Amino acid sequence: MLIPTKEMQEYEKYGFKRCKEPYNECYYLCVAKGVQMIFLSPAMITIMPWEETDPRIHSRPNCKYRDGRMAIEILCELIQKGMVICDYQKERHTIPEWEIITGIEILDPDGFDRKDPKLYERLFTREEFDKGLFRSTIIGK
Question: CB under 8 Å to 22, separation ≥6 — which residues?
Fold first, then answer.
């Protein structure tokens, strides 16, 4: 799942509008190309088809935000700017837990700080784990 990393108001700079009450903690961005909308809540962000019966948004397409890109391209830009991440990037696990999750066994942890006495107890994000894994000797389980 994709999740936002910034305060909701930050997304207004990209054309996001606040949803109607009682959904007004959420935001949306209508995208003309592909007739889609990007829906944003404090917990997630997703691309949905635009439907005029959706109670969260305006009933008639009056998109002032004109862009030649599709919703997926806008979402990719938000990811590149660090405004959206995958939820697994926030997860933290120990090396043995990541080995189980990924189905990989680390034979030699060359890519990690082997001098760290708590190496196998320390919590790593997926990004940190992958970075250490890149320089380690591994096999698939």
Answer: none
pLDDT tens, residue by residue, 34-85: 888 899 998 889 999 888 788 888 766 555 556 678 889 999 999 999 899 8
Tokens 């862009």 belong to 67
Alpha helix (H) ranges present in 21-94? 71-80
Contact indicator for 132, 112 with CB cutoff of 8 Å: yes
> Quick check: 99 and 136 in contact, CB under 8 A?
no
Query: In one letter, which amino acid is 46?
Result: T
Bridge partners of 53, per DSSP, are none
CA atoms within 13 A on the CB side of 71: 19
pTM for the full predicted model: 0.60
Over the Cα atoms of the chain, what is R_g?
A: 20
Q: Taking the CA of residue 132 as centre, how many other CA atoms within 13 Å lie in the half-sphere pointing to its CB?
A: 23
